[in-house]
Structure formats: C-alpha cells, structure tokens
C-alpha cells in the first residue's frame, strides 16, 4: 500500500473533465488498496500536499497548469515522484506549435501549418489573411495551441470566417496555430511505458454530433461518438501509424503513458495531429477503452501507470 495524492480539477477550461478523470482514478486506487487523498488544485494546494506527504502523486489534470509542465516542475522541486511525462515533454506536447515543430524536424508527417502572433495580426489583418489564403486552401483549422478537448479550435470554411475565428482563438493565447484541413479518418493510438513500450490497438473515432468533428460534445457525451477497435484500416497502414506513434512519443521524450492523435487521408496517408500526455480517464475515454479491448481493466491500467512512475 502506498500513500498516493491525486491532483485533479484545477483552473483550466478542462476542469470538469479533470474532476471526472480524477474521481475515476481515486476509485481505482482505493480498489487497489492504496491510501488515497484527492486534492483540487484550483486554489492553493501545496500545504495540503505537504501535509499528506505522499509516496507518489497521480496527476489527473488536463490543460494549462496541469498538463503543461508547471505542476510537474513543482513536484520535482518538492521531491515527489509523479505519473506521466516529465517537465519538458509535458511542456512541449501541451503546445501544439512546438509539438508540430518537433514532428517536422523528426520527419513525422503532420498537416502544414502557420503561426500568427496577436500583435502582428491586429496591425495587418487583411495582409495576413491574404497570406493564409495563398498558402492554404479553405477550409482552414484555427487552434489556440495550449488548449485541449477541442477547446479553442475553429474551422474556417470561407474567407469571412477567418477574422472572427482568429480573434476568438486570440482570447485563449497570444500566438495561434493555423493548420491545413485534412479530410480523413480520425484515429488515435494509446502508448504506455518508459523504455519498453506497449502500443495498444488503434481506435477509430466516428462523431455522431452531425458536425463531422470529434468535438467536446462528441468526446464527453454518451452516444455522441463511436469508437471502433481496431480501426477500419489496412494492416500495413496500421503498422505505419504505430511506427509514427512510437516515433512521436520518443521524439517528445514521453514516459509513462500518452496518446497520439492522427488523421488518415484516403485511408492511406496518416498525419500526426498532436500528442496528449494526460489523456482523459472518464467513462467515455479512449485510453481505458482500448486497454480493455486487450484485457486490461481500468484498475490494472492505473496500477501500471503507478509502476511506470516508480521505475
């Protein structure tokens, strides 16, 4: 039995999902026989953490102030081991711009992209919009790079969409990502381990919201998406996806566990979208579902995450 603190909630836009993930993790840890304390990081939590003095911290936070290296750095200063990726990998993967730069450097296929700083855009909006339209065909994907759960993501289908959607994205960040739109099958790969990795079966995601996008509603509402395991793709394509997923995981320096998201164009060409270092662990979440498809229960999955953290 170990003393394990579960950090959950927080103050990002993904707070409600973090609470669901955290509560599911707490229940699993109790089932595994650990002494567990749930700690909401929305307000000052360091004294609570020190008072409990855990053997290990399970990070169940999503988005900024949880998934971006800040909490990981704090825990390293305090001297507490923690689950999941380290400071650098967390910081890099949480920012879609830096993730894509690393993917590009590693020659991992990812949709073409362009970045815009708010100051530059406000000075020359028409010039920048015209530049975007020269570089890319519509539709375009506009992303606030540090958000998750499809928060701060917009799809500009026509020229008139650009200005309002870019301004909306700037409400989240001072620098945003513009990405070419890839029409394709959406799949994701869950990976766990440190040096030796286990790659779980590829999941295909089909949204039932009518938008055609795996958005917040599709992710977190029962019946709003179908998860097909394994994905309906040729074995050779799945093999390529797994190779790219592992390469992405290692290129960012991930450890413990992460999930790599793809779009597959024409059922042949996979493109890496992002790497999620603290995937959701709710009742509709992808990671536990693919683990269960190979006989790994939720409790066993959480137990493995603990073991990876202590290695």
Summarize the structure in words:
With 311 residues, this protein is of the alpha+beta class. The chain folds into three domains: 3-84, Rossmann fold (3-Layer(aba) Sandwich); 113-180, ATP-grasp fold, A domain (Dna Ligase, domain 1, 2-Layer Sandwich), CATH 3.30.1490; 182-310, ATP-grasp fold, B domain (D-amino Acid Aminotransferase, Chain A, domain 1). Helices cover 40% and strands 24% of the residues. The protein is built from twelve helices and 13 strands. The strands form three sheets. Strands 8, 9, 10, 11, 12 and 13 form a six-stranded antiparallel sheet that branches. The chain has a four-stranded antiparallel sheet with strand order 4-7-5-6, sandwiched between helices. It is globular and about 60 Å long. The model is unreliable at 214-220 (pLDDT under 50).
């Amino acid at each position: 039995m170990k003393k394990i603190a579960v950090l959950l909630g927080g103050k990002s836009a993904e707070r409600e999902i973090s609470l669901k993930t955290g509560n599911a993790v707490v229940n699993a840890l109790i089932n595994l026989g650990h002494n567990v304390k749930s700690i909401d990081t929305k307000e000052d939590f360091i004294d609570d953490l020190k008072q409990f003095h855990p053997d290990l911290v399970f990070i169940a936070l999503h988005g900024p102030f949880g998934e971006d290296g800040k909490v990981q750095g704090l825990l390293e200063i305090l001297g507490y081991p923690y689950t999941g990726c380290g400071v650098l990998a967390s910081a890099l993967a949480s920012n879609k711009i830096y993730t894509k730069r690393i993917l590009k450097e590693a020659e991992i296929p990812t949709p073409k992209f362009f970045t815009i700083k708010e100051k530059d855009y406000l000075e020359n909006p028409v010039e920048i919009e015209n530049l975007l339209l020269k570089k890319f065909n519509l539709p375009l994907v506009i992303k606030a790079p540090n958000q998750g759960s499809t928060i701060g993501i917009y799809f500009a289908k026509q020229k008139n969409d650009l200005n309002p959607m870019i301004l909306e994205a700037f409400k989240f960040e001072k620098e945003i990502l513009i990405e070419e739109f890839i029409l394709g099958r959406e799949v994701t790969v869950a990976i766990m381990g440190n040096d030796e990795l286990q790659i779980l079966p590829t999941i295909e995601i089909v949204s039932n919201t009518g938008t055609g996008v795996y958005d917040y509603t599709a992710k977190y509402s029962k019946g709003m998406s179908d998860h097909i395991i394994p994905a309906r793709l040729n074995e050779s394509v799945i093999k390529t996806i797994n190779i790219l997923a592992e390469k992405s995981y290692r290129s960012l320096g991930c450890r413990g566990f992460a999930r790599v998201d793809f779009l597959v164009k024409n059922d042949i060409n996979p493109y890496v979208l992002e790497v999620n270092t603290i995937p959701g662990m709710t009742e509709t979440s992808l990671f536990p579902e693919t683990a269960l498809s190979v006989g790994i229960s939720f409790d066993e999955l959480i137990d493995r995450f603990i073991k990876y953290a202590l290695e």
